[in-house]
Amino acid sequence: MAKEKVVLAYSGGLDTSIIMTWLKENYDYDVIAVCCNAGQKEDFEAIEKKAIKTGAIKAYTVDLREEFITDYIWPTLKAGAIYEGEYMLGTSMARPLMAKKLVEIAEKEEAFYIAHGCTGKGNDQVRFETTIKALNPAIKIIAPWRFWDFQSREELIAYAKDHNIPINQTEAKIYSRDENIWHISHEGGELENPWNAHLDTIHVLSVPPEKAPDEVTYVDIDFEKGIPVAVDGEKLGPIALLTTLNELGSKNGVGTADIIENRLVGMKSRGVYETPGGTILFAAHAGLEQLILDRDTTQYKNIVSQKFAQLVYDGLWYTPLREAISAFVDVTQGQVTGTVKVKLYKGSATVACKKSPYSLYNEEFATFSKDDVYNQSDAEGFINLFSLPLKIRAIQKQTVEGGAKEHEALERKVLKSSDFIC
Description:
By secondary structure, the protein is an alpha/beta fold. It has 3 domains: about 5-65 and about 85-170, Rossmann fold (3-Layer(aba) Sandwich), CATH 3.40.50; about 185-295 and about 335-365, Alpha-Beta Complex (Argininosuccinate synthetase, chain A, domain 2); about 375-420. It is built from 13 helices and 14 strands. The strands form 3 sheets. It has a 5-stranded parallel β-sheet with strand order 3-2-1-4-5, with helices on both faces. A 5-stranded antiparallel β-sheet has the order 10-9-8-13-14. The longest helix is centred in the C-terminal third of the chain and has 34 residues, at about 390-420. The termini are far apart. The model has no long low-confidence stretch (mean pLDDT about 90).
């Protein structure tokens, strides 16, 4: 009789390396390892070999990079979605796509189980499992961190040593990291105490701002309907474009954020995130929208951007509301086409100038000089109408207060007359 199969979300890191062996010890299942290439710097051939060596019957490497950028990053960028004003959702955007690929391979391999290495305290368990349930609710989930006997990563390291499992982590350097083409995150270690400043040595993608060049770097980014398509006038595909901006941002120390965030599961956590290219793109896109979107659209889009960010953070990519917000956002991006020049200097990315054929900014209207398109005397009538509710309220208040004063005066007069009669 054939064994049941379990698809393991496998990175070759500490947790999933342990889970591979642990699954073989505790379940009579065949394990299929799936490593998702979302742009992290890894030797994927070595990871596949390690998976087979440590117990997998088959190992897949799935290249997600372009799909990740075009179907997840660009929609989030167009929405202007940043969680709690700082976190650019690098891990949050990637998890639904990874889970989607796990489901596809499970269906292909006729596996009824998917296992992952997410902890019971984190957000990723929710992101993986909500996606799996949305796409194939028949698949069962194994999440060892929620029920095995290990209580810490130190115990995992000891288990790895006992079972001769090759790992990179040590007790001295024990960050939990997640990297893709958009960002890298760092958690754990000394970061667990918010009074500890993160060390410069934590940086993987970017130099610290203090070590960035002393001269300014300018970069031009072209957008078409809200999507970046060229850097410094050169048309680039999604991977090449983001890679180019990552290199520029990294060199200039752009995009490092040290954040205390509110996790979905109800606790606060601290992470250091490096998002060099993404920080440049968000600044450029927001700057271009300033030229093009009218006030009411801008204000309403700011509202839905926050909701979009929360949905992505919470693992609710495959929901009707997220899809509906994306449809609204796509309408707003119809004319978000133009060029933005961004100034990079020692950790900052600021918009220097911008242009668009669809710009609502018109120098003839905005100028303080004489013009033929705006009659300043028209402002008086506009202000009279605009302030009419305030004027009516003030008149009503004066009338009520005046009536009350007359009533009080009459009462005093009556009382005085009564005293005289007595």
